[in-house]
């Protein structure tokens, strides 16, 4: 049984790190002393900006395009990045997509595209990363960015909800199977975060009111990145199979209520 307490990471890959949570995470890991592999799907310029920020912190950055729906090719991208980095200690699966379509109207192609991006592609990439970690024999950290909808559903999100429930279950199984190799596996489940995915690119979430969220605002991508950085660090050596909800208290309200309440009357007894 490999001891995880002496694990000190120096290399990481963060998928979909061209913007939002992925970008903030890649920079946070670089700040923690890691060289980082950056991937992009459609925003190459954004990925290069992330890489420049990493290099500005004195760390190495390697950039590759990754389409997690290309299931046969995705693992090869992870292997290429790891080779160029000289190893892989931390893998953060952040790539994801969604749609606002009710169950009765969901087409099979849209369903499969979301499941391939969020779950099947995650399996392929996580497996490639884990295999490298096991072979290296140094332990490792696997972190998947899930969602509050891993725990509670939302109207119009059947494919997204199913994929995030599945991703959470996958990570718990990895925690069971990979612990003997000193590899931890955890999920981070964000609520509403000010990112391009929620139509809030480069917006200060502290200026946006969300009465239905106990903390009263959306989250900042860096607030998610800080939690991921902890799970990637030596300080998290005894944390595995856990799901870290980072949502400003939204799940306490129910995710539908959290974003749809428009006043503060609920705060009164």
What is the strand tally?
Answer: 7
In the predicted model, the low-confidence regions spanning at least 5 consecutive residues are none
The first-to-last residue Cα distance is 52 Å
Can you list the strand order of the major beta sheet? 3-2-1-4-5-6-7
Structural class determined from secondary elements:
alpha/beta
Q: Helical residue percent?
A: 25-40%
Number of domains: 1
At CATH level 3, the topology is Rossmann fold
What is the name of the CATH architecture?
Answer: 3-Layer(aba) Sandwich
Strand content: 5-15%
- Shape, principal axes of CA atoms: globular
CATH level 1 name: Alpha Beta
Main pleated-sheet profile = 7 strands, parallel
Describe this structure in words.
The protein is globular. It has helices spanning 20-31, 44-56, 71-85, 108-136, 158-178, 221-231, 255-260; strands spanning 11-14, 35-40, 61-65, 90-93, 140-145, 183-190, 243-246. The mean pLDDT is 93. It has a single domain (11-262), classed as Rossmann fold (3-Layer(aba) Sandwich), CATH 3.40.50.720. The longest helix is centred in the middle third of the chain and has 29 residues, at 108-136. A 7-stranded parallel sheet has the order 3-2-1-4-5-6-7, sandwiched between helices. The termini are far apart. Helix 6 links the parallel strand 6 and strand 7. It has 269 residues and is α/β, with parallel strands linked by helices. Helix content is 40%, strand content 14%.
Condensed summary:
With 269 residues, the chain is an alpha/beta fold. It has one domain (11-262): Rossmann fold. The protein has helices at 20-31, 44-56, 71-85, 108-136, 158-178, 221-231, 255-260; strands at residues 11-14, 35-40, 61-65, 90-93, 140-145, 183-190, 243-246.
């Amino acid at each position: 049984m490999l001891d995880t307490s002496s694990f000190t990471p120096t290399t990481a890959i963060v998928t979909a790190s061209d913007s939002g949570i992925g970008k903030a995470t890649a920079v946070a890991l670089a700040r923690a002393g890691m060289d980082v592999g950056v991937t992009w799907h459609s925003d190459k310029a954004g990925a290069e900006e992330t890489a420049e920020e990493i290099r500005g912190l004195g760390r190495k950055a390697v950039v590759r395009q990754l389409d997690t729906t290309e299931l046969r090719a995705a693992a090869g991208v992870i292997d290429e990045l790891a080779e160029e980095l000289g190893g892989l200690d931390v893998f953060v699966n952040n790539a994801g997509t969604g749609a606002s379509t009710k169950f009765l109207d969901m087409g099979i192609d849209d369903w499969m595209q979301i499941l391939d991006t969020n779950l099947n592609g995650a399996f392929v990439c996580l497996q490639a990363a884990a295999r490298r970690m096991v072979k290296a024999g140094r332990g490792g950290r696997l972190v998947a960015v899930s969602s509050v909808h891993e725990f509670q559903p939302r109207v119009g999100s059947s494919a997204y909800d199913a994929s995030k429930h599945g991703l959470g279950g996958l990570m718990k199984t990895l925690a069971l199977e990979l612990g003997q190799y000193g590899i931890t596996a955890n999920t981070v489940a964000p609520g509403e975060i000010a990112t391009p995915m929620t139509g809030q690119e480069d917006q200060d979430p502290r200026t946006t009111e969300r009465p239905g969220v106990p903390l009263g605002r959306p989250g900042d991508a860096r607030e998610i990145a800080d939690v991921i950085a902890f799970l990637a660090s030596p300080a998290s050596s005894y944390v595995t199979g856990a799901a870290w909800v980072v949502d400003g208290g939204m799940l306490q309200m129910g995710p539908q209520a959290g974003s749809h309440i428009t006043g503060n009357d609920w705060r009164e007894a």
